[in-house]
Specification:
The protein is of the alpha+beta class. It has helices at 32-35, 66-76, 83-92, 95-104, 107-111, 118-128, 132-135, 153-163, 168-177, 185-197; strands spanning 4-13, 16-21, 24-29, 44-53, 58-63. The chain has 3 domains: 4-63, OB fold (Dihydrolipoamide Acetyltransferase, E2P) (Beta Barrel); 66-135, Orthogonal Bundle (DNA polymerase, domain 1), CATH 1.10.150; 153-197, Helicase, Ruva Protein, domain 3. It has a 5-stranded antiparallel sheet. α2 (66-76) crosses α3, α8 (153-163) packs across α9 (168-177) and α9 (168-177) crosses α10 (185-197).
């Protein structure tokens, strides 16, 4: 099992990234909560990882904090929740926000995340209720402050939101809400996700 990667950030294109570890490029998928804390491409980076083995692929997931990985692993144990939905939850809410959602039994908030229906949201809250205290443990974020993204941030944000499960027309609407000159890709995505979470 690969539990940790430390190297150089070779590529970041939400929700995918690549870390160069001594000449070997590790491809990972990561939630937006992790992308917000990534350095610029070419800079040193350290990520906690989780490997999902499927019949057709081995997929490595990367996380900026141990608490994000713990939440991801906890969500995978919930009936009907796979890696894509777990990434969607982590992209739509921080670990702290998720804990508040579970404690408040806020089903409506969870159903705003793409791919989560009412039944899944109810299962997540019921099955995660007992484990939220473990997830609340203090964490240390690896990596450095976010730096400005590369060219065409709007295009990168569009692709990332579609990959997270939003329909293209919905993405277009969300990006209009986040439209402001000079924003980085991650800031555009952050604002779009915030707009999507509004009732």
């Amino acid at each position: 099992m690969i539990g940790f990667l430390k190297g150089r950030l070779a590529l970041k294109q939400p929700p995918s990234l690549m870390v160069d570890v001594h000449g070997v490029g590790y491809e990972l998928e990561a939630p937006m909560s992790t992308f917000y804390g990534l350095p610029a491409a070419g800079e040193p980076v350290a990520l906690f990882t989780h490997l999902v083995v499927r019949e057709d692929a081995h997929v490595l997931f990367g996380f900026g904090t141990e608490s994000e990985r713990r939440l991801f692993r906890g969500l995978l144990k919930v009936s009907g929740v796979g890696p894509k939905i777990a990434l969607g939850i982590l992209s739509g809410a921080s670990v702290e926000d998720f804990l508040r959602i579970v404690e408040a039994e806020d089903i409506a908030m969870l159903t705003r995340i793409p791919g989560i229906g009412r039944k899944t949201a109810e299962r997540v809250i019921i099955e995660m209720r007992d484990s939220v205290q473990k997830l609340a443990a203090p964490t240390i974020r690896e990596g450095s402050p976010l730096s400005p993204a590369a060219s065409s941030p709007q295009g990168e944000a569009f692709a990332a939101l579609v990959a997270l499960g939003y329909k293209p027309p919905e993405v277009t609407r969300l990006l209009k809400a986040a439209d402001e000159p000079g924003l980085s890709t991650t800031e555009i995505i952050r604002r779009a996700l915030k707009a999507a979470a509004k009732p």
